[in-house]
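Message: I would value a second opinion on how I read folds in token form. Give me a protein, with the fold worked out from its sequence. Write it directly below this note and I will take it from there.
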Amino acid sequence: MTRAKERIVVFLKGYPRISETFIARELLALEERGFELFLVSLRHPTDAIRQDINDRIRAPVLYLPEYLHQEPMRVMRALGHAMRIPSWWRATRLWLRDLSRDPSRNRVRRFGQALVAVREMPADAIWLYAHFMHTPASVARYAAELRGLPFSISAHARDIWTSPAWEKEEKLRAARWTVTCTRGNVEHLHGLVPEADVELLYHGVDTSRFAPGEPRSGEGLVIMTVARCVPKKGLDVLIRALALLPKDLDWHYVHLGGGPLRQALEAQAIGLGIEQRCVWRGTVTQLEVAASLGQADLFIMPSRVADDGDQDGLPNVLLEAMSMGLPVVGSRISAIPEAIAEGRNGLLVPPEDPVALALAIERLARDAPLRRRLGAEGRATMQRLFSDEAGYDRLAARFASAGWTMASLAA
């Protein structure tokens, strides 16, 4: 069997997205291992900038109609095509059962997008693969049912914790296999469907790109966070913690990232009288993230569980900061303790606790040897346990096995 027979169709919520470098790295790694990919994006890109790694990915991209009424003729042509497929009624019954439990316009849109994908995806596809367990996996599942193809899922964070249990259970049973990026996710998904094939596959980190540089020169402590300004990141807790730091400490805070709460956070800093110590740089590329981390002394990730249940899994940028040799402080929540061992390679604090967070920051600010020790051990942890290449090899092995299986069936 040649790789030309191994066309993997990858379903994505949006492509490219500046915040999903981990997906771009995985796509590139699969191409480098000889797989031919075809990308299906449920949305057009909205970010003003893109990562350099996206320019190295060769796979073509099919953009589905984000809203069905925007391209009615395209959807009608896809419907006519799908109704001639032998599995049409089986797929329709599956969708109608889902619709009875989720009678929403979004559920209708997912099926319509699947119809378009089935008509317009390559004829030589052998496998469908969805990044995120919610909407992309729904579209991929309906498309897989129509095309008679196997599909698999890569599950992450919000898509797991904000999806209803019935939907997760059915997708786990329908998927040939699922990979996910934290042990906590594996335990949760196995708790729903014990017999499901669910594998832990950390996103990993490029330890060559995120490597320690020369020690920073300059006065004062530079505290950094890279995160979207959304509730689950707990940035309002961090702002309150910074305002509690003793007056004799010399520090500055640098934030990288966009998001809907940015103005509210800036206003909070003004209200607490620390706006002169805070710098808000907005959305940047991964290369700029690495350069900025090289100018920091301390990295903070104050994650929390949002009101809608959304929460971080294991934030990639936390791993990147550790790979840079930065001491880190994270919340004792979700999968963050899978990377941070308290007092060994970082510090953990309870979520929603600005006092505990302020004390951890002060402790590290006053103890340079502790910062160096935690940073060095964090870097060693990344090299030992979070190699991205090992994870890519395991994912490629799954797809290679799938390709042989499909080739033998075709023969």
Remarks:
- Residues 404-411 have pLDDT under 50 and may be disordered.
- The longest strand covers residues 125-131.
